[in-house]
Amino acid sequence: xxxxIILGTGSAVPKKILTNQELxxxxxxxxxxxxxxxxxKQRHIAEDGxxxxxxxxxxxxxxxxxxxxxxEEVDMIVVGTTSxxxxxxxxxxxxxxxxxxxxxxxFDVYAACSxxxxxxxxxxxxxxxxxxxxxxxxGAELLSYITDxxxxxxxxxxxxxxGAAVLSGTNDSDRGxxxxxxxxxxxxxELLHIPGGGVVYPPSGEMAERRDHCIRMHGNxxxxxAVRSMADVAQEALTANELGPDDVDLFIPHQxxxxxxxxxxxxxxxPLDRVYVNIERYGNTSSATIPVALDEANRSGxxxxxxxxxxxxxxxxxxxxxxMMRW
Length: 327
Ligand code: COA
Fold this sequence. Notes:
Blueprint: E1 3-12, E2 17-19, H1 20-24, H2 31-38, E3 42-44, H3 52-67, E4 76-80, H4 91-99, E5 105-109, H5 115-129, E6 135-142, H6 152-155, E7 160-170, E8 176-184, E9 192-193, H7 205-209, E10 216-217, H8 219-240, E11 250-253, H9 258-268, H10 279-282, H11 289-299, E12 308-315, E13 319-326
Helix pairs in contact: 3-4, 8-9
């Protein structure tokens, strides 16, 4: 049976760090409030010259090097992002340019914080169709450009980062991606959205003045939906593979809030020592949280061949999804 397998991972963050203490001088907040309500201590923030595609390309370079794959061997680049360099061209095409991946085609998927799980699912299907192909799945965001730095409800939460995975086919029946599970519910779009900048509310001076190109969120409502949907889709992935919580070696949930992660793990009965948490260092980097965590777990030796890994995401749309794999 042909499966896709991850051959290499990579991640990158901008150099500049913004701490909770520094945020105290920007909005009416405190390190104590941010740490206790979210688990976040600091986040990386882009500076002049940083772009989403450059950060994505840096993460991909590392992933290709680990995989032993040359840029010209790549067939497809799929990027999950909600903060592209430009509306057009797509980020995948720009990553292709930065890498010199001359034989690849690139495009973006647009699923907010679920972007990497969506991109990985598309990559998995492509590799299953063409097992000899080399495909890059990326989650990359510079959320600092779509964050309202005067809104304490949101600006303490987000950060910038990129993560990448290189996939190809395998005949090894014991390893690779076992199943993918995607969902969305557009009826709930207003709970987490960016009002301006599209065709409904086109760019204008007034729009910029009101900072309506920035993320707007009903935090409490999003929290409840995130817990329920992430627990449900992770359970769906376990059931589909006839597995239970004890089988999971590493659970990598989207890093939006430590309290969401703990509640989801509790519902699934997965102990916290098998939950990957790095939100304290990066904040919520949307589609980048899962691939960055995956790369850290991989490079630190926390992942061993044969380990059962469960990825679980939730984001604006709403979108949510899970990926079950044998490392
Ligand atoms: N610093 C200090 N106080 C703050 C604050 C901040 N940065 N942000 C909000 N508050 C205040 C609120 O104004 C409110 O004050 P009030 O009681 O006087 O009205 C109080 O803290 C509680 O606000 P509330 O929104 O109920 O807090 P919460 O415990 O729900 O935590 C979030 C807020 C945003 C951290 C939480 O709802 C959350 O994480 N939601 C999901 C976010 C998410 O996952 N988003 C992305 C999905 S991919």
